[in-house]
Write a structure and sequence with these properties.
The chain is built from six helices and eight strands, in the order αββαβββαββαβαα. By secondary structure, the chain is of the alpha/beta class. The strands form four sheets. It has a two-stranded parallel sheet. A two-stranded parallel ribbon has the order 2-5. A two-stranded parallel ribbon has the order 3-8. The termini are far apart. Helices cover about 45% and strands about 15% of the residues.
Length: about 170
């Protein structure tokens, strides 16, 4: 349903652009993270960090082989800004193509937080995507944009934010 809604909004935006001649941009945002995320938003990164910080085991769905890419919020904002300042009106992916499996990511969070939690596995939801990796070829060519913040650096900043948010500093 979510994917169909996104496609619908892109179609409506292009129809409005073509029919009314309005200057539009279509940004396809991929997994973004950073300070001020909600700990309870249901995505992997805040779930893993919240679990690690509250002493819970980290929950991985399926065998953890499904992949995700994580783009630090400052990189996303820069990509959006560059697209808004361009004259390109077709969809552009803004995200970080550096993929990691969810199992490896859970292990990375345990190492970052210095906790001793285990990773526990639960059944994979039927609609869980196997891969989330943006193709940022257009963003590089048209906007001269690509992510700059390394995941390890961004995770440290995000971890510090979550510690403060939970009063664990």
């Amino acid at each position: 349903m979510y994917d169909e809604a996104k496609r619908f909004m892109e179609s409506i935006t292009m129809a409005y652009h073509n029919f009314h001649g309005v200057d539009t941009r279509i940004i396809r945002i991929f997994n973004t993270y950073g300070p001020r995320m909600r700990l309870d938003d249901g995505r992997a990164l805040p779930a893993f960090m919240s679990q690690a910080l509250t002493g819970q085991d980290l929950t991985v769905f399926g065998d953890g082989s499904q992949t995700r890419s994580f783009c630090y919020v400052a990189d996303l904002v820069e990509g959006i800004y560059r697209l808004l300042m361009s004259d390109y009106n077709m969809p552009v992916n803004i995200g970080n193509p550096a993929e990691i499996s969810l199992l490896e990511f859970a292990e990375e969070i345990i190492k970052l937080t210095g906790t001793s939690q285990k990773i526990v596995f639960h059944p994979l939801p039927k609609d869980d995507p196997k891969q989330r990796k943006p193709d940022i070829t257009k963003a590089k060519a048209l906007l001269g944009w690509e992510p700059k913040v390394d995941r390890a650096e961004g995770l440290k900043i995000t971890y510090e934010y979550f510690k403060q948010a939970l009063g664990k500093s």
